[in-house]
Amino acid sequence: MNLFTHVNANTVAEATAALADGKAQVIAGGTDLLCYLRNMCSPNPPTTLVNIKTIPDLADIKVEGGMLKIGALTTLTTIANSSVVNGNYTALAQAALAAASPQLRNVGTIGGNICQKPRCLYFRFEYNEFPCLRKDPSGICYALLGVNKDCSIFGASDGCVATCPSDTAVALVALNASIVTSKDTWAAADFFVIKDEQINSLDADEIVTEIQVPTPAAGTKSAYKKFAFRKAIDFPVVSCAAVITSSGGTVTAASIVLGGVHNSPRKASEAETSITGNAIDATTAEAAGTAATTGAAALAVPVPQAKYKIQLTKVMVKRALLATA
């Protein structure tokens, strides 16, 4: 592992100041970052780690002004066990519970979960054996011609077919959440983008401070479903968060978001249209699942090993919708 300096930040201002030189990175739970550092998979390792666990008031859950507010340092276990989150924001509680293993959820934070780096095997390969374009603009996407069974089935962003590995990101986009940072407030749908080694919009001297989720409308239920080869530890191969508002047994509004199939959580607009105005049953849920894969078959050609995800996507959408019925 490369040598680095460890700095404790006592305030958000101290943290952002320490990050200003562009050679530092934030550490909280460290469940993703330490693996990244240990494997020496990047030519751009940080020279300083800025510990933000020492900043107070960033690890609480509260409802204020009709808004659920979760501090960035709140652990995934705390979120999964919260009666408040389980009550009105079920998909988020389920996504937090689905992430990683109990040991990792006990220390991993929601801020870290939404800011983790790509899991593409070429990006993560030890000693930067594959200098992909995420780490070197002059590089290539090795997955396009190599092992691509875990890659995007909806095309590439800037030539990259790595997928967003975060469970909670999918639920947050579906719930129309906002990501509050030291500089700005982002709609969750706009926050998750491929940016160098990141899958988020943060600047080098910017940190996430809070997650805000509006209270769902009356008659709303939500669910998060995930397929992974191992139920514990594994990242999602395909996942789906569904937030459904119904009246008189008929869907009046739908928010359906896919995970594991694109560079960022993907809004399944066709599936939302398909289910709106209908009652949720096995037939309509299956039809929505099919609609969610519109365009995937053609775009999967560059990464043929990932085509199995098309069927998985249909199943995960169907299961998520039926869980809200």
Q: How would you sum up this structure, described in words?
A:
A hairpin with a 2-residue loop joins strand 10 (238-247) and strand 11. The longest helix is centred in the last third of the chain and has 17 residues, at 308-324. This protein is of the alpha+beta class and 325 residues long. The protein has helices at residues 12-19, 33-38, 76-81, 83-88, 90-98, 102-107, 110-115, 121-124, 167-174, 188-191, 269-275, 282-292, 296-299, 308-324; strands spanning 5-8, 24-27, 48-51, 61-64, 67-71, 178-181, 185-187, 208-214, 220-227, 238-247, 250-259, 266-267. The protein contains 14 helices and twelve strands. The protein starts with a strand and ends with a helix. Helices cover 31% and strands 20% of the residues. The mean pLDDT is 95. Helix 5 runs antiparallel to helix 9 (167-174) and helix 11 (269-275) packs antiparallel against helix 12 (282-292). The strands form three sheets. A five-stranded antiparallel beta sheet has the order 4-5-8-6-7.
